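Morning. Coffee machine broken again, so started the prediction first thing and wrote up yesterday's gels while waiting. Chain of 438 residues, entered below exactly as on the submission form.
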Amino acid sequence: MLDELLSENPDLKEAVDLALQHTMWRKRRCINLIASENVMSPLAMLLYLNDMMHRYAEGKPFKRYYQGLKYVDELEVKAQKIMGELLETEYVELRPISGTIANATVFRAFANPGDKAVVAPVQGGAHVSHTRYGTLGALGIEQIDMPFDIEEWNIDVDGARKVIEETKPKIVTLGFSLYLFPNPTKEIAEIAHSVDAKVVHDVAHVLGLITGKVWENPLKQGADIITSSTHKTFPGPQGGLIATVSKDDYKRIGKVVFPMFVSNHHLHRLAATAITGLEMKLWGEEYARQIVRNAKTLAEALAEAGLKVVAENRGYTESHQVVVDVREHGGGAKIAEILEEANIILNKNLLPWDKPEDIKNPSGLRIGVQEVTRWGMKEDEMKQIAEFIGMVVIDKKEPSSVREKVIDFRKNFIEVHYGFKIESSDEERLLKIMLHGE
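Came back before lunch.
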C-alpha cells in the first residue's frame, strides 16, 4: 500500500524518502559530534508519538482554559516532580518549548526594557540568546559584557566584580554554549546579590552532567534560577526547562511563560521528558562520568594527532565538549564542511580572540561526545574518532576514503545505552497504540 501511494505521488515520495534517508544516515552512517544534540531511548521515542501532539493546554495543570486534559495535567505534574527530584527543588517549569524561550521568560520576568544585564561575551561561549543579537536585545535589555580569562577558559571573577558593582544590573547570566569548565557560580552569585541582581544560570549544555551528579547544581551554589533545554547532555526530547528554589520567583516566572511566550507547550514531549528523567535517575551518573572521560580522551588524542586543542593547561575539558583551534588549517567553516564529507558532523564556533565578523569562518570547532557516548562508545572509540579527524585535517586524506571507514566503524554502535530497553514486540504494540489508539 505504501509503495503504491509513493509511486502515485512524487511529492509524497520525495518527502518520505528525505526523512528516511536522513534518519538512516544519522543513525547508521555518521559520527555525530554536534554538542547540542542527543538521541532519546527507543521507549522515550515511542511515547513521544502520542495523541497529545494534537492537543492544546493553555495555562497550568488543573487550571486550564481547555477541557479534555485530565491525563495531560497528571503527566505534566509527574514530569515536573521527576525533574524536580533530579534538581532537588519542587519549583520546575516545563512549559517553555526551548532553552531560548526559557531564557526569554526569565529575562522578561526580572528585567524591563532599558534595564541592564551583565553577560559573558559570545566569543567566550555565551549563547546568542544572552546577547543584544538575540533574546536579550529583542526585549530591550542592555547587554554589558563581563571579562573572560582565556588562560582559565572561564569568567574573570575580579573583572566581573568590577563590572557588576559599577553597572548594578538586574540580571547576571552564567552558562555557556561553548562550555568546557564549570563557571564560578558561588563567587559570581555573591557579587550579584550584593547589588540585588538575579543570577540566571543557563545549564542547557550541562543539564545531564548536573542531573548525573558530576557537575554541581548551580541552585545549590547561589544561582537564583536555572534555564535549560532538555536534549543535549540530558538526552530527552527537544524542549525547555526553568527551575528555581524560590516560590515567589517561580510564581513570577509562571505568569510570564504563559501568556507572554508560550500558548500551547507541545504536550507530547512530556511523557518522553519524564521517561528520560527516570533513565537519568537510574543510569545518569554512569552516563555523565563516561561522557567526561570520553571528552578528555578525545581531546588528548586530537592533541596527539597534531591538532591545537584549547585549554591544554587545564586538561582541555571537564564537560562533554572539546574545542579545537583550526585557524592554521583554514578555519572552522572550511574544516567542518570537509569533515561532513567524511560523515563526521560537528560545528564551527567563535573563539575568544575572534571578532564578531568572523562568525562565517571562525577559528574554532566545537565537538560534543554526549551522543556517541549514548551509542555506547568509550575511550578506545574516542581514539579512533580522533584518528579519523586527523586523517582529514592533518593528513589531508580524501574525505570520501575516510567516509567509508566511518561507515564501517559506525555499524558497531546502533543501540542506545543508559536507557530503558524494550523488545521488538513491545515496540510494535506501543506503536500500534500511539498511531491507532488500539
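The domain at 283-410 is CATH 3.90.1150.10 (Aspartate Aminotransferase, domain 1). Going to sketch it on the whiteboard this afternoon.
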